[in-house]
Amino acid sequence: MTERLYLLDSMMSAFDAVVTACEPHKGGYLLELDQSAFFPNKGGQPCDVGTVGDAVISDVNEQGERLWHLADRAIRPGTAVHCALDFARRFDIMQQHTGEHLLSYCAWHLFGAQNVGFHCALSYATLDLDKPVSHEGITEIENLANRLAAENAAVTAKIYATEEDLKGIPLRKHAEGLEAPIRIVTIEGSDACTCCAPHVRRTGEIGQLKIVEAIPYKGGMRCTFLCGMRALSHAQRMQDTVTSIALRFSTAREQAEAAVQKQAEELSNAKRELRQAYAALDEYLASALKAEAEDVKGTKLIVRILDGVDAKRLRNLAGATMTDKALSVLFSDTGERVSYLLASNGIKTDMGLLIAAVNTALSGNGGGRGTLAQGSAKKPQGLSETVEGLRTYFRNVLLHG
Length: 401
Ligand SMILES: [Zn+2]
Fold this sequence. Notes:
Elements: E1 3-4, E2 14-25, E3 28-33, E4 35-36, E5 50-52, E6 55-63, E7 66-71, E8 80-85, H1 87-111, E9 115-120, E10 125-129, H2 135-150, E11 155-160, H3 163-166, E12 182-187, E13 192-194, E14 209-217, E15 220-227, H4 229-248, H5 256-291, E16 294-296, E17 299-307, H6 311-320, E18 326-333, E19 337-345, H7 351-362, E20 365-369, E21 372-378, H8 383-400
Helix pairs in contact: 1-2, 4-5, 5-6, 7-8
The structure holds zinc ion (ZN).
């Protein structure tokens, strides 16, 4: 059994210990120490990493009463070792974790929302609330949490020997299934709850608390939040983003949103105008196509390559050329690729049959049946000649059935 030094002093970044066990494990070694300040993967947060003697510790896990440090080399049991945590990582995690206590207290105090889940990753943390909170409510939680952080209240942990001893302590949350002795973490003047992890000593050490996203989750809310340097670097990134948008619009940051809005409206208007222009153009194109249709035994045959017409326009154009008996085969040349559409009316031949010939001629992919088929291919050398060959084929199909 290892004495857990992190329960006594969360700011301990180095300590001396004696190795009590060493076992090979997954290409490394599991070390056990007589005492340790390394916090394991536990309670939704990642473990501490660091060094034990010359060994690098990359993972720490609990197994019952035992605490195993995953090391890159073996150390003989009985060896006295100096140990050091990656304390920047530990402190960052303590900031997020203590921030979670404070945010949870504020959600509970302001809206009666209980924290029902916590996860701390190395770049963000989430806490889950059991009831929905409005956007304004989330801002209120943030504001109160930051005010309480600025009051720099003491954060203390105390161990109670029995459940009896806990009576009279106004707990926000009592984790289920805990056996005495129970550790209560208190933020002076506000929060008290059961917790086994290390915390910062005063709320001021949390730094800024920022909820960056709050989305509906399991009937409540999942809040993604950042504390301390994480909140600062998020603010810096957001500032850089808004600055680059503002620069692009040659305006001040404060005007960036209005500039984006204005451009979105202009784009929407331009798209509408373009649609209207295409509609007028396609009306003209359709009548030109109809005028050049070839009469093959009473069927109007149109075969034509068009420049960069999208699939929807191609379909509309083909539709507009339909007469009592018609076969229209339209190709759209976009430079790199060619798309094609076959439409018919009043003839027996199935378009599924004809598109097979087009697919073969262009090495393309396409399908369809009845009176409509469409496909596309990489634009081949000599597209015009290939299409003229297909025109002859379509003409023969119409002539001979
Ligand atoms: Zn805690």
